[in-house]
Structures are given as C-alpha cells and as structure tokens.
Amino acid sequence: MRKGDSSHGVQVEGYKELARALRKLKDTELKQELVATNKTVAMAVAYEASNYVPTVTYALFKSIRGSGTMAGAQARAGSKAVPYASIVHYGGNGITANPFMWRAANKQLSNTVSIYERDIARITQKAIDRSTVHTTS
How many CB atoms lie within 10 A of CB 21? Predict the structure, then answer.
C-alpha cells in the first residue's frame, strides 16, 4: 500500500501520551500489552480485508497482514512479490479501484474502537497502579 497514506486511519486521542508514559516507566510488560493490542486491531482489519480482496491468483490475498508496534497498528497488503496491491486498491493503469483495505477498516471501526477502549483503560490503570507503588515506596 502507499506509504504515508493515513487518510483512512483511526486516531486514538491520548495514544501518543500513553506510549510516551509507558516508555518513561520502562515497564516492558505494559509496552508488550500495548503492542499486542495494536496487533489485535491490525489483525482484525487484515482478516476483514480478506473478505474484500480480489482472489484471481490468491497472491494478493496471501499478502494481507497486520502488525502492531508501540507507534500503532497497521494492516497492509502487498509485498515485493505482489507489487500491484496499491494499483488494485487505489486504481490505475486502466484498473478500477477496489479499496478493500478501507472497506475492511470501516467495517471493523466499532470493533477496533471497543478493543482500544477496553485495553487502553486496562493498561492505563495498570500504569497508574505501578507508578503509585513506585512513588510511595
């Protein structure tokens, strides 16, 4: 997919601040939980995208994946072996656009919001509890 195109991404208010606070706490477990949350969100979108992608050879289908990092969640399609993913998605070269990743993201929006609300609340509470324990000791 086209690098730097976040026009259809989801912005989580306060996410950057949470990630920064977790880095300062140097709590590996909480960082891993945030990465796992991001991967869960990305995989939900990637799985949904598999319902919309054209499956002539299944190469594009097989290239769909999700990843999570401290920076966020990202669902992707395409690879060096499947360089035409962006043409299929955005259109071009006489091919009509099939925005399968956007359809998937839109379809999974309420699910991803629920996952983030639940997990970020849990991670934030754990961070607060741990920082309180460290400051009162």
Answer: 17
Residues 104, 135: Cα–Cα separation, whole Å: 44
pTM strictly above 0.70: yes
Residue 137, Cβ density class (10 Å: 0-12 exposed, 13-18 middle, ≥19 buried): exposed
The structure tokens 């609340």 sit at 121
Helix (H) or strand (E) holding 66: strand 65-68
Tens digits of residue pLDDT in 37-84: 999 999 999 999 999 998 888 999 999 999 999 989 999 999 999 999
Location of structure tokens 């920076």: 71
Task: Please report which residue ranges of the chain form alpha helices under DSSP H.
Answer: 15-25, 28-49, 59-63, 85-90, 100-107, 109-136
Contact 18, 34 (CB under 8 A): yes
Q: What count of Cα atoms within 13 Å lies in the side-chain half-sphere of residue 120?
A: 19
